Amino acid sequence: MEKQIRYQIGNETECSFKNHADYCVGTGRMGLALQQQYQEQLKLVQEQIGFRHIRGHGIFCDDMAIYQEYTDESGSIRAEYNFTYLDMVMDAYQKLGIKPFLELGFMPYKMASGDQTVFYWKGNVTPPKSYEAWSGLVQAVLLHLIERYGREEVVTWPVEVWNEPNLPGFWKDADREEYFRLFQETYYAVKKTDSRFLTGGPAICGVDDVLWLEKFLEFCEAQDLKPDFITRHHYMFEKPEQCGHYSYGALRDPMTALGELKVSREIIDSFETFKGLPMHITEFNTSYSPDSPIHDTTVNAAYVAWLLSKLGDYCESYSYWTFGDIFEEKGVPFTPFHGGFGLVANGTIPKPTFWTFAFFNKLQGRCIHRSDELIVVQKDDGSYCATAWNLCLEQKECLRLYLTLPEKEEEEYCLLTKTVDEAHGNPRKIWHDMGEPSWLSKEETQILKDSAQPVIHTETFCASSCGISFSILLQPNAVVWFQLKKIKKCKDRGYDYFCGEDPAAGTGN
Amino acid sequence: MEKQIRYQIGNETECSFKNHADYCVGTGRMGLALQQQYQEQLKLVQEQIGFRHIRGHGIFCDDMAIYQEYTDESGSIRAEYNFTYLDMVMDAYQKLGIKPFLELGFMPYKMASGDQTVFYWKGNVTPPKSYEAWSGLVQAVLLHLIERYGREEVVTWPVEVWNEPNLPGFWKDADREEYFRLFQETYYAVKKTDSRFLTGGPAICGVDDVLWLEKFLEFCEAQDLKPDFITRHHYMFEKPEQCGHYSYGALRDPMTALGELKVSREIIDSFETFKGLPMHITEFNTSYSPDSPIHDTTVNAAYVAWLLSKLGDYCESYSYWTFGDIFEEKGVPFTPFHGGFGLVANGTIPKPTFWTFAFFNKLQGRCIHRSDELIVVQKDDGSYCATAWNLCLEQKECLRLYLTLPEKEEEEYCLLTKTVDEAHGNPRKIWHDMGEPSWLSKEETQILKDSAQPVIHTETFCASSCGISFSILLQPNAVVWFQLKKIKKCKDRGYDYFCGEDPAAGTGN
Amino acid sequence: MEKQIRYQIGNETECSFKNHADYCVGTGRMGLALQQQYQEQLKLVQEQIGFRHIRGHGIFCDDMAIYQEYTDESGSIRAEYNFTYLDMVMDAYQKLGIKPFLELGFMPYKMASGDQTVFYWKGNVTPPKSYEAWSGLVQAVLLHLIERYGREEVVTWPVEVWNEPNLPGFWKDADREEYFRLFQETYYAVKKTDSRFLTGGPAICGVDDVLWLEKFLEFCEAQDLKPDFITRHHYMFEKPEQCGHYSYGALRDPMTALGELKVSREIIDSFETFKGLPMHITEFNTSYSPDSPIHDTTVNAAYVAWLLSKLGDYCESYSYWTFGDIFEEKGVPFTPFHGGFGLVANGTIPKPTFWTFAFFNKLQGRCIHRSDELIVVQKDDGSYCATAWNLCLEQKECLRLYLTLPEKEEEEYCLLTKTVDEAHGNPRKIWHDMGEPSWLSKEETQILKDSAQPVIHTETFCASSCGISFSILLQPNAVVWFQLKKIKKCKDRGYDYFCGEDPAAGTGN
Amino acid sequence: MEKQIRYQIGNETECSFKNHADYCVGTGRMGLALQQQYQEQLKLVQEQIGFRHIRGHGIFCDDMAIYQEYTDESGSIRAEYNFTYLDMVMDAYQKLGIKPFLELGFMPYKMASGDQTVFYWKGNVTPPKSYEAWSGLVQAVLLHLIERYGREEVVTWPVEVWNEPNLPGFWKDADREEYFRLFQETYYAVKKTDSRFLTGGPAICGVDDVLWLEKFLEFCEAQDLKPDFITRHHYMFEKPEQCGHYSYGALRDPMTALGELKVSREIIDSFETFKGLPMHITEFNTSYSPDSPIHDTTVNAAYVAWLLSKLGDYCESYSYWTFGDIFEEKGVPFTPFHGGFGLVANGTIPKPTFWTFAFFNKLQGRCIHRSDELIVVQKDDGSYCATAWNLCLEQKECLRLYLTLPEKEEEEYCLLTKTVDEAHGNPRKIWHDMGEPSWLSKEETQILKDSAQPVIHTETFCASSCGISFSILLQPNAVVWFQLKKIKKCKDRGYDYFCGEDPAAGTGN
């Protein structure tokens, strides 16, 4: 069974496609950034995709050891700050060419007003005992970063206040007024350090989000606070069921799900003061649980491709949660493929969705086509570059795209495709066939890495007076990147590719 | 069109398969080993294939600068030796885990009796003015190597005297008597340094080879010389025609060609004294010209697979000429793919034949099947490992191998294949479609490297009472490696590969 | 002021010097081994020193996440094991060429009978709720290691039961009987897994050590347990005082301190059954607190040199606590130099004591002199290799060693020294003069690394009929390595080191 | 014996010091850039010094294989160009962050009008048979570079025509008129390719230089050629004597030698048309022979320091000949230290002069003192940075510099020195004492590398109302870099560098 779609490209007026796929990516808590395997995974991500910012929880958690107290000679408790690990993390980011998108949280144990925690790693989610101490911490950290990495650099790092305060698990009692106070105090602390710091919130997820967002903006307006951007999260999963170590659920209809973002956008724009304020999706993914096997699949890759083609219509960025599988929110994973959020599995093995990002980040140029399966851009040198996908949420059928591009020069063109589908660039399938080993030998790791690469294919053809026509076949949930370039023939003197054989005589070389 | 062959494997008695594919590999002249790109290519070869020895020309050529002369106070000419470059080359080999198979030649300019040279790089091919000086050089070099790398190590490096003296291009007038003298003098010089050095010759190619070999052995017998091994070369190409920078010709029928080796073997064994003496093929390839596009093709890969399955029947080793494309015998190549001898193209891009060696070098174990398309071995852990090929010299047709392996346990097995054919692991095809660029951008190099990997595929199935049956489809001139392993099921608690979907309902994941 | 000592070396009979300096080294808790900086520091240590084993706490602590529980369908609590992080740690050790000396502890939270913890990182120090569960954990871990790293390899990793149970901080109530039970259960669990595992205890420190050791051995004798070795710890510091983040105390007289080991040795030998049983010092250092500035000094280096020259007389090994400064027992350090236990400071900067180990690990050969300031060995090639030190605990005075070695050949010799003292190989001094910055710029880190190298010096002289005489000057607390080798003169034709100048005419080159 | 000089720094008006030390460095012929060891040496140079351009001979020599000819179907000889090796070399330069300073020469064998060659590697030094062919080659090469590396980048690479045509060894008969023709043809060829290419000559050495320069400028004026810069060479050695493999001579008085440059400058300025035209010294060194032991010495380092302090007064750049010892003009060197031109010896061991460049390239800032022994600059952050040297050509005496800097704040300052002298950073001395081995074991190489680092020392002191006064002691021919920085005291809570001891009580730590 094969679905067929035809596009005559180029008759369209310029398409609007805002590509912010490379703006930001999520990460497990900051303390994990000290790990060797974390850095190795991020290195691969930066080499092949190249994000500009990274955002994660826990900069103030006790494993980062920043906030400390001691008793001075007079018997008073005094704060002191430890930047040893913070520097190691930031040095690693700098070396990997990525800047933080600073999320301020959670609460240092000694500053916390309660002992409620979140996650296996026990982030304290209660308000500070003293907002003065909190502001002191925020400023001390920013000033230290400025001193170490330079003021001009550090003020380009956005600052977000806390994470998902609209959930009682992340902020005691989901106390809205208390969050607003936290936001206000933090906002002032940051701006006093340097008014150029872009500062935003409320970092909410999709629970009571309408109410929270409205109240937040009303509060800001009332208090004359001017956040530089608004943040929220966006997950595309129905409530999952737990089975053993894993969570299973259904993907939401993507168009419906996007509606929530539209609403958020409209709320912001309904405030005169905040109209047009940038909105950042500081977390998004399909499932919101780090144990959902869906994350490692090709359907995830195709679903995310669909999202990346649309999200720029609603917001300034969308940070995939997360780049890698060093992540401990529900404990340490038992197996290499375990439905973690990451683009990269432990063992530094890219998953299909890794390539969705790699493919989108290459879509730089003038967009000449955008549809539900395909984006095509034209580069300055005249060549075309595209990403296509075949998202199959229900019926699994192949998709054949018949495309005509408006090249009329009677020359030869080379079409180069990189394909990820069930049989290619899909290491989880190989791992499954191996018996789903819970640990990998060196040889197995190498096979999985090798099998995780997209397959590359080329074809050539000539333009006619109608343009260049060709087709691309996509297996169910395939994601395909292609480029079409005019061939500059360089045949070397005497070179015969067919070695003197008649190329038409057989099928081989 | 598809050819079909069925094999019921395991009823055979143990097959004889002598796998010496990893014993030795050829190289461009020693002076080229100083180059960065040479070392990079050899590094890839050693990581993925892992040869034990390396053999090439020119250790005594002037670019290696070993032999020098000066005039002493009394006005006499005296020899002195310069080991600066020799050490750099040998250090590089040591670092890469490969030992030399020392070929002694050609003649240092200052020691030469004439000025006849061979190759673009002008190796002098005339006898020494003084055999005393020659022996002095041989001994000085061996003693230096012993001093630097240790006697126990260096005596494991075989020594071969000169290269193809039966061609007038390689040895002035192809003067047989003069070569015998060279052999004798060298033999004594080497054995005096350490009698454990394995020393051999006559390193002839297939011209007048019968006569040369008989005369050589008669000479040794008469002079009471006991070479430790006999060497010859073996190319499989009809005389090529030159067209521009390139040479084209026809591949010989492989079985006929092997006949020459059989004759050589019989000649050796016909001498009572030399019966059973090891024979090393110190060079082999399809074409003997480093500008034959055939070298970069899949047909070359399949042809060499056929050869590797048979050569062990005739000789102790067979050294593919050469590991890489840093090679200057006919000048510096103009383009990345140019029909060079190498397993690796410039840009450090593996060619199809690279994988033939990688696949054969993994065939370690008990051979349970050998035919004209397939070798299967069983490993100590019970798993199977195989290489199959579909050599199509004339008609290009697909080959389907139906195989039954004697596993009877009712368990599940995983078949993992790595395939190289026209569409996979064949970077020259991509390069051709790109327009055969004479130089590569970084991006193009990366695409060619990525496209040069075999495609990996897995399947699972159960054994029945008749064994495990499955089929392998080989495109024309494909080379396929596969392993079959019993699956040790490790399903983690709650893990469902199909994420709750019915796997039978569609084609995807 | 200068002290002078003369040694006529070589008239002595062969000296007894047992050099076990490279047998084992300590580490911060196992979970820290996941960190990039930890691995970088260990890499430096292995490249320049090369220990065979590594021992640290916390393999069973919850950050390693090995022990997990879940409720099965029937509602029973069941154990499951997670080896994800264990494999990462052991893979890192394997890559760095070091084997674990397994210390089994502390108690996983879910298996613990109480909630008493030790250290900033909260290792649980209570007995298991169930010894069956404990034995199950021990066996599961060992079996997994055997499966992954090979049985023959893993049985060479010694196993020690718990850490310092004689302190109530490390083992609830310092309950001796309970520890003996733990030892017995663990011993059986280990030996059942493979009887070849060398298993020992009681890992005590110097508190009540005589009583504990006697009782432990009595218990073993009574229960017919045969530990393969006895372990204890050894620190050389008077009880320190805390001041701010730091601990200060006095070094004990080293000879007196060694007396404790002598007593331990005698206790063991007083048991007929255990006479001659190997004794391992599984931790030693000067101060036992990871915030003692003494650790980073040259006096520490000289003191440890003294120890390394003597400890082999009493025991089979002595594991310096620890190789690096990634260590969190009293929290995360605030500054690069902070008196951590490590041989290497954060920033991967070697400290003076690093070189003490590097120098001792090169003392391989026949010992021909051992005194309180100097050890000299002779190598197989006839050259001499030595380490000297000038330990100044009270009065700081220089030491000049006048040495005569028994070389009588009238040839020239080269003396090469590597010196660490106040002015050389002492990065803490540079850091102090820089103002003791709490964090380092890249440039400062590089300066400190460069300044952390020993200074190298050479001199030449001739032997006379009395041997070779020369002197070595040691600044207070210097540690000096030197070698003396006969020079093989290789002057190249025409080379004049003095470029034609009269070397005697000036002081320069 | 000690010389003493006092400088009260800062009363001077701003000193003129033009620091072009990092503009360009020389290299052995381009074909050698393919070598691994060459690239390794250049990597070290770029990491620690960081030059902007690199200039060497032989881009058109036959080992680079660029110029080729063939006979077409009509029987005509036609040119073709091979860029395989050129791209490898330029890629390596790009990777190492260095741009070529293109020297066009020598003559490809097939284009040459004669067979006169220069050097062991036989560069052909005869005029082209056809200037049309020559211009075609120049343009083809430039256009290829533009295509591969981008036009905007490539036009920043200066172009120089030939090398030392005023010597008959480098240009047949030193034929001036013929060189002028070559210059003119080349100039037009380059400018036609892109008029932005800066193009210059005549690349003369100090033989008949006055006459050549005058005639060259007259020719240019007459022909209305506008070279963008003038180039010449500058060596500081009296004619050396050869002894065995080595050349010995005397260093010229540096001030007298500089006179030649002054003359060149004046000649240029005497032409109205060319007044103020930039002059580049495209080669300089002490001896002009690559076998002069002086090159590896500290006197060379001090002499070059003197030169670097002055050369900017006369010219726009001065390219030290050469960065490394992979160099074959007089053959392949026999030993690691052999008086090669390089800043780095084979084995990648920096020589003393390496540090002269490293020290000068850090002298960025406002010059506040320049004298015959010292240059001091002040940086934007207020700190001072300086290089001092003690050039002793005759009498070898120590030099003590008493310096007062105009800091008046009553704070503490840290003086950090890096010293190279006879005993430090002088690996040749260690090698000499080892017996001058002609080849190095890995261990010896490591010792020499370690010994090749400058010794680092710090001191602190306070400013008084008269400024900060301190002294620097320089051994004969020492080169010392130092910086003086105000200390920002960061003492951590409770840290006592002296560990509780009285620092005044002894000499140690």
Automatic annotation (TrEMBL), chains A, B, C, D:
<protein>
    <submittedName>
        <fullName>Beta-xylosidase</fullName>
    </submittedName>
</protein>
<keyword id="KW-0378">Hydrolase</keyword>
<dbReference type="Pfam" id="PF01229">
    <property type="entry name" value="Glyco_hydro_39"/>
</dbReference>
<keyword id="KW-0326">Glycosidase</keyword>
<dbReference type="InterPro" id="IPR049166">
    <property type="entry name" value="GH39_cat"/>
</dbReference>
<dbReference type="InterPro" id="IPR000514">
    <property type="entry name" value="Glyco_hydro_39"/>
</dbReference>
<feature type="domain" description="Glycosyl hydrolases family 39 N-terminal catalytic">
    <location>
        <begin position="16"/>
        <end position="459"/>
    </location>
</feature>
<comment type="similarity">
    <text>Belongs to the glycosyl hydrolase 39 family.</text>
</comment>
<dbReference type="InterPro" id="IPR017853">
    <property type="entry name" value="GH"/>
</dbReference>
<dbReference type="InterPro" id="IPR051923">
    <property type="entry name" value="Glycosyl_Hydrolase_39"/>
</dbReference>
